[in-house]
Amino acid sequence: MKFIIDLIEDIRTEIKNDGNYSIHAMLLKENPEDKEKLIYAGEATIASFDLDPIMKKLSFTIKAESKALLIEDLVKHLLILDMDAMMYPLEVVVNQQYQDIPVIGFGKSSEDNKYILFIKI
User: Fold this and answer.
1) Cα(114)–Cα(121) distance, rounded to whole angstroms?
2) pTM for the predicted model, two decimal places
3) pLDDT tens digits for range 18-63
4) How far is CA 75 from the centre of its chain?
């Protein structure tokens, strides 16, 4: 599980806070032949986020056919948070069936200007 502070640090070091990167979720599943390995199972665009101070979490939402959330639209809200909020976990709402899926890692595609949140179902 990753936290807001991890996300901020990774965005700073990996893409130098480049606001033109769009945010995407990449689904990974266990390899049926080797449970230790994960395999690619799809990618979707992150359309929005919700910082919930009551549930103490940051949720990203996937919406088909929606414009991708840009790093610049996310980071400006995260950098002003207090230290307590920096420890909120990151989750992705995929659909009605798969809600609150923890983010397990980060990645990037420099060629496509994509910043990637890895999730596992």
Assistant:
1) 21
2) 0.93
3) 999 999 999 999 988 998 899 999 999 999 999 999 999 999 999 8
4) 12
What one-character-per-residue DSSP string does 62-92 give?
Answer: E-TTPPPPBHHHHHHHHTT--HHHHTPBEEE
The answer to whether 88 touches 55, Cβ cutoff 8 Å, is no
**Amino acid code (one letter) for 8:** I
CB 26: neighbour CB atoms within 10 A? 19
Q: What is the dihedral of CA 84, 85, 90, 94, to 10 degrees?
A: 140
The model's confidence at residue 95, banded by pLDDT at 50, 70 and 90, is: confident
Q: At 109, give phi and psi (nearest 5°).
A: -130, 100
